[in-house]
């Protein structure tokens, strides 16, 4: 009998602990749900203030994001990296086709060469006719004045390879477009650094915008916060609605920034595509991928959460009652 009573008591205690655990978890979830709904309600009750805060944050986010997107498209427009590294070796006119073919095989066998494309004078003349629209003029020429051409893709140091190819007795002119590419790379590096600087400055501005908005909301609820502190409410309980408020500002601002950039992309895509087609290119603007867009929105939400947390934490440290 005693054993049955002890087992029943143990079972009752276990059930009580389980119910207490479920009750604590349910209370925690209820608090978060209430804070989320309350924050959304405060945003809806002040539509103009909310729209202004979100708009300022969205513009602060859109500027560096737009610059990053522009730099990515410029890199694509500059061409494939391997193509930009190609070295053109124009052979002397006296070099015959058999020797040009053998030379292409010799250059291809080098360890610092990734690929070699041999273009005959006939192929070069056909490409020139199609590219320049000078078919009738070139047809009237006696013979083919173009030499054989080797298009070499470096597999190592392109500058050293270009210097070595220039020493070949069969080489007449070696064209290596490294200077313009180095300058372009320099401009792209500068643009990337500028984007980071703008992101830091404007991100700080967005942080201050959220912080100031939350600070104004705190000032309007000073009495309510004071009562909660006197009743012993934890700082986390008081801070939670403001954190959700900052999170909401950030998420909406990130979504609006993406919408603005998408609208700019749609407005510029067709005119730029027409301009590219006039140069024989199929270049088109590319926007943000789905993972990148998701990361932008989540990052903006985290920025708003951080700004609200900093301001609310500072306020609570200043107003927390102390024991005397």
Automatic annotation (TrEMBL):
**For this UniProt entry, which segments traverse the membrane?**
51-71, 194-214, 242-268, 288-311
User: Which cellular compartments is it found in?
Assistant: Cell inner membrane
Which protein family is named in the record? Belongs to the ABC-4 integral membrane protein family. FtsX subfamily.
Q: List the NCBIfam families.
A: FtsX_Gneg
Protein name in UniProt: Cell division protein FtsX
In terms of superkingdom, the source organism counts as Bacteria
NAD keyword on record = no
Q: Where are stretches of biased composition, namely Low complexity? A: 7-18
What do we know about how this protein assembles, alone or with others? Forms a membrane-associated complex with FtsE.
Ordered alphabetically, the record's keywords are: Cell cycle, Cell division, Cell inner membrane, Cell membrane, Membrane, Transmembrane, Transmembrane helix
Protein source organism: Lysobacter concretionis Ko07 = DSM 16239
Its membrane topology is listed as:
Multi-pass membrane protein
Q: Residue ranges of the ABC3 transporter permease C-terminal domain?
A: 197-307
CC per GO annotation: cell division site; plasma membrane
Q: Which InterPro entries does this UniProt record tie to the protein?
A: ABC3_permease_C, FtsX, FtsX_ECD, FtsX_proteobact-type
Functional summary from the UniProt entry: Part of the ABC transporter FtsEX involved in cellular division.
Does the keyword field hold Nucleus? Answer: no
What residue stretch is flagged as signal peptide? none
> Which Gene Ontology BP terms does the record give?
cell division
Stretches for region Disordered: 1-22
Pinpoint the FtsX extracellular domain residues.
Answer: 86-160
């Amino acid at each position: 009998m005693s054993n049955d009573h002890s087992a029943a008591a143990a079972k009752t205690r276990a059930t009580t602990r389980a119910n207490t655990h479920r009750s604590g978890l349910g209370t925690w979830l209820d608090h978060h749900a209430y804070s989320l709904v309350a924050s959304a309600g405060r945003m809806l009750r002040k539509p103009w203030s909310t729209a202004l805060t979100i708009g300022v944050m969205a513009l602060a986010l859109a500027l560096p994001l737009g610059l990053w997107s522009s730099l990515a498209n410029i890199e694509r427009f500059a061409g494939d990296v391997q193509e930009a590294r190609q070295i053109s070796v124009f052979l002397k006119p006296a070099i015959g086709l058999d020797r040009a073919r053998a030379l292409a095989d010799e250059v291809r066998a080098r360890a610092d060469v990734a690929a070699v494309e041999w273009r005959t004078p006939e192929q070069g003349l056909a490409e020139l006719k199609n590219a320049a629209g000078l078919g009738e003029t070139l047809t009237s020429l006696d013979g083919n004045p173009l030499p054989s051409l080797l298009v070499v893709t470096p597999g190592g140091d392109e500058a050293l390879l270009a210097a070595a190819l220039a020493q070949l007795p069969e080489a007449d002119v070696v064209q290596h477009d490294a200077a313009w590419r180095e300058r372009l790379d320099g401009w792209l590096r500068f643009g990337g650094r500028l984007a980071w600087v703008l992101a830091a400055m404007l991100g700080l501005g967005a942080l201050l915008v959220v912080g100031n908005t939350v600070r104004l909301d705190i000032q309007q609820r000073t009495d309510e916060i004071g009562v909660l502190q006197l009743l012993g409410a934890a700082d986390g309980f008081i801070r939670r609605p403001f954190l959700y408020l900052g999170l909401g500002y950030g998420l909406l601002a990130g979504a609006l920034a993406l919408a603005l950039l998408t609208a700019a992309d749609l407005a510029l895509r067709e005119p730029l595509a027409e301009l590219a087609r006039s140069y024989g290119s199929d270049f088109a603007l590319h926007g943000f991928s789905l993972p990148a867009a998701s990361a932008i929105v989540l990052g903006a939400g985290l920025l708003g959460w951080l700004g609200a947390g900093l301001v609310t934490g500072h306020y609570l440290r200043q107003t927390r009652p102390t024991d005397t």
